[in-house]
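Sorry to interrupt, but I need a hand with the structure work. Go ahead and set the record down below:
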Amino acid sequence: MKRFAQLISVLDSTNKTNKKVAALTAYFQTAPKEDALWAVALLSHRRPSRPVTTTQMREWAAEVTALPPWLFEESYHIVGDLAETIALLIPQSTSEDPPSLAECIAEIIALKQQPEAAKKAYILKQWQQLNTIERFVFNKILTGGFRIGVSQKLMTRALSKAVAIEENLLAHRLMGAWDPQKTTFDALIITPKPEDQLSQPYPFFLAHALDEGFFEQEDPTAWSIEHKWDGMRAQLIVRKDQLFLWSRGEELITDKFPELQVLAKALPNGTVLDGELLVYKDHQIGTFNDLQKRIGRKTVSAKLQAEQPVILMAYDILEYNGEDVRAQTQNARRALLETLFQKYQQPALPLRLSPVLFFDRWEAVAAEREQAEVKRSEGLMLKNVKAPYGVGRKKGNWWKWKSDPKTIDAVLTYAMRGHGRRTNLYTDYTFALWEEDQLVTFAKAYSGLTDAEIKQVDRFVKQNTLERFGPVRQVKPELVFEIAFEGLAPSTRHKSGVAVRFPRILRWRHDKKISAANSLADLKKLLP
C-alpha cells in the first residue's frame, strides 16, 4: 500500500505525460506481482465490490472527527471528493506498517461479508494508522476509481516499457472481463493461455472530430465515407460456436441482446465484427431513444424484443477465419467484410452491412452529410482507405464529421457545485423553456463556458439564490443561454416530454431577456 500510495501521489502531482509514464514504469518493475496486478486493475477501472456505503463512511468520519454532520457535509462539498475529505480531516493517531496493496484489497473483499460493527472497526483502524495519502488511496479503493489523469492507454504504455511487450498486444490482453482475483500477473500479461482469451475483444479504434483545414489538405478519393450511426458501439465475437458481445466500455452485454445469438451458428468461428447496435423495425432504423429502452434492462422480455428489435450494423472486421486482420488496410478489411456477408448473410438475420460511399468532390460529401437526419445517423465517418485498424484515439486515419447541432435558447433555473478543482464554483446548470407562463425544465449542461464566464455565473448564482437544496440552488430566472444538442426524442420520463442528447452550452445570450427564450412548443417542432 505504501508503494502504491507513493505512486498515486506522483501521478496526481504532475501534468507531464513522460513523468507519469516513468513513475508507472518504475512501479511495475519493482512492485510485487500481486500488487502490480491490482494496480493494473485499479487503473483500468476494475475495483473490488464496495463493502460499505458512502453514507456509512460519512457518518463514521463525522463521528471520529467530532464534527457536526452539517460541518462535515459542508467540508465535503467544498473539497468535492469524499475520499479526499476523509483523508484530510482524520489525523494519523497510530503508526503501523500498512499491508501490501494486494493484502489490503483482500481484506476489503473479505469485509463484504462482515457485520456492520466489524466493518466500522476495521475501517476506523485503517483511517487512524495510515498517513494522509495512504488514507486517500484506501478510501478510493472503497469508493471507486482513481481520477488522476491516467488513461488506460497511458498505463498500458508504461506497462509495455516495464515488461518489454509490444503496447498494442498488451492493450488486447487487458481487454475483456478478466478478474484480478482469478488470474495472476504472468497469466494475464506475460504468458496468457489461448483458452482464457476465448471471449476477449480487441481494443476499439476511435475517431477524432474533423480538423479545421482538412478539406483543403486532403484528396476525397483517398477516403471512404460512411454514416455515423446513432446507436451503441459494439464488438461481436464468434469463437468455438459461442457468441460474445462487448460494449465500447468493455462491458459484456451478450445477455442484453438475446436475438443476436442466432449469429453464433450463422457466422463462422473466428469472426470479430465492429459495428453499431441499432433498433431496426419494419426495415427502418430507430432512434437512440428507442435503443435506450433496451439498454440497462436486467431482463429482456420477448415483448420488448418484438417492440424494439435490435440488429448489428457492421462496418469493420477485426478477425477473419481466426486471423487478426487489423493490420490490413481499410479497403482490404472492407473487402473481407463484404466477402463474409456474401457467404453468410441472410435477410432474416439481425445483421446488416453499413454502406460505404466514395466521392471525388468534398461538396458531394457535404451534400451526403445533409441526409444524416433522414438516414437516422449523427453525420459521417471519414476513413483513410490505406489505414489499418488502430488502438484507441489515434489521430489522422478516422475522422467524424457530425451534423450541425440543433440549438435553442433556454433560461437558467438551477445550479449545482462542480467537482474536483471546481468544487467552489457553481458549474452544473439546469435549464428551462416556456410553457405558457411557466418555465419547465428540459435539460442539464455543464460545459461550453469559458473560465471567466463560469466565474461570472457563479457570482450571479450566489447573489440571486431563491432556495437551497443541499448543493443545489434555485436562482432567479434572469440569464439566457443558447443550448446545443445532437438529437431529441419524445420521452415520458422527462417533465418536458422530450429527451435531448448531449446538451451543452453554446453561448451566453447577453442580448436576450428571458421573455425571448424559446418554448417547449419550439423544442417539439425539432422532433424528427
